[in-house]
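Deliverable D5.2: sample structural annotation.
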Amino acid sequence: MSDLHIVDVFAREKYAGNQLAVVESGGDLSDGEMQAVADEMNYSETTFVESRESPFRVRIFTPEAEVPFAGHPTLGTAHVIREHVADGRPDEVVLDLNVGEVPVEIRERDGTETLWMTQQPPEFGEGLDHEPLAEVLGLPVDALDTDWPVQIVSTGLPTIIVPLEDREALESIDLDHAAYERVTGDRDAKLVHAVCPEPREADNDMAVRMFSPFYGVPEDPATGSANGCLAAYLARHAYFGSGSVAVRVEQGYEMGRPSLLHLEATDRGDAVDVEVGGQVVDVARGELL
């Protein structure tokens, strides 16, 4: 039997943010068993902690496939490791993911504990035409903000960043699966991240939505990897007028799972430093039989 934890990530209370199942597998499950468990849980991702010493070996599965990196599973798993696996509740937990080692630091922010991950150095890929991405999102071309590029960015999981004009466009998205297949079919980038500078809450800076049918995730309520790519994009293109950004991003409202992500990035010219932070809330604990 393996201990099973359910947490909500990028959430300020239970039953918000992005759900995550974390299994203390100890390396006893086969690849097929892990994939079956992830399919059974049917969350955006399920993680498996295969070691009890730092750096903690962790594998991440969507309902469809294993992925080398994902943001909310990294933070949620680090929280579970800190509370239930590691000795002494350390202030930093290092995860050994398929993409490499990812450190997660626990800091106090606004009177609460916030977990921060340092993501892999971003890679900036090709720019795409706006029209095909408008078709993917089921929007007219003028709903996209053509002052900014549509671009593939990766900090471990390639993501297509699509800037929109306003929140009306964001809320009007109606994903066209045939167009999605045409754009993503021969590319590694399977995440489509639509972003706009019109959040609902005055304290926030941006509102976003993320879609990835390829991984069995029609829409994700909070996406740390895609928002890490967004942080790199914002810094590299000086979206807010500077190569350094510190922004609050809301996601998941259309799904009834309001989420808050903190993004920080600095463009140093030869590289961009990216950190993504958020809160984790415990929901349930049990055993995988």
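Annotation notes: The two ends are 5 Å apart (CA to CA). The domain at 2-118+279-288 is CATH 3.10.310.10 (Diaminopimelate Epimerase; Chain A, domain 1).
The annotation will be released with the project's public dataset once the embargo ends.
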